[in-house]
Amino acid sequence: MRFVRNLIPLSVVLTLGVGVACKKPAPAPVEPPKPVAPAGPSQEELDAQKRAAEEAARLKAQAEAEAARKAAAAAAAEKEAAFRRAAEAALKNINFDFDKSEIREADKAKLQAIADFMKAYPQAKLQIEGHCDERGTVEYNLALGERRSHAAQAYLVGLGVASDRLSTISYGKEKPLVQGHDEKSWLENRRCEFKLQ
């Protein structure tokens, strides 16, 4: 009986020892995965791309502005050239009979062309120069040249050209168009010239 009493605690101790010995070890803690930086350009690369895009935009705007400036300059040059061509075609001399300041029938078409030019180009202003041939005194020819320039001015005003766009001056016989002492030369020198101002 005493043996059985000693045997029971021994079996309990053995059972507990076997249980402790068979216990599985706890699993090692697993570390969570570290976050991975997303693939792509760095901030430095993004800044460089931004600067490059801004520079490209600036160069494009500069090129467009330069192209616009050149186009405007070309358009202005063409407009000026067209104006000069029209003036050259329209501003023809008119002539006068000896000692006269009346507009000749043959010259009315020329004055009409000048009036049309003035209406087409409202910015144009003219100086009408009165000239005479070599005969007569200086004073007489200055007065005659003045009457001729005034006659041309009045005719143009009658065709609708504003008088403040037309000024007059007389050179008398001081600026002959041709040198000669015959009727043909005198006729060419008895004239009005129309000069752009």
Automatic annotation (TrEMBL):
Q: Where is this region: Disordered?
A: 27-51
Major location, coarse class? Answer: membrane
Name the CDD domains for this protein: OmpA_C-like (cd07185)
List, as start-end ranges, the regions of compositional bias called Pro residues.
Answer: 27-38
Q: PROSITE patterns, from UniProt?
A: OMPA_2 (PS51123), PROKAR_LIPOPROTEIN (PS51257)
How this chain sits in the membrane, per its record, is:
Lipid-anchor
Query: Which Pfam families would you find in this protein's record?
Result: OmpA
**Gene Ontology annotations for the cellular component aspect, listed alphabetically:** cell outer membrane
Record localization: Cell outer membrane
Q: Which residues form the OmpA-like domain?
A: 83-197
Q: What GO biological process terms are annotated to this protein in UniProt?
A: cell division
Keywords tagged on the record: Cell cycle, Cell division, Cell outer membrane, Lipoprotein, Membrane, Palmitate, Signal
**Keyword Membrane tagged:** yes
The record, for NCBIfam families, names:
Pal_lipo (TIGR02802)
Looking up PANTHER family in the UniProt record yields: LIPOPROTEIN YIAD-RELATED, STATOR ELEMENT OF FLAGELLAR MOTOR COMPLEX
The record's comment on protein family reads: Belongs to the Pal lipoprotein family.
| Name the UniProt record assigns to this protein | Peptidoglycan-associated lipoprotein
Annotated organism of origin: Mesoterricola sediminis
For this protein's source organism, the top of the classification is: Bacteria, Pseudomonadati, Acidobacteriota, Holophagae, Holophagales
Q: Which gene encodes it?
A: pal
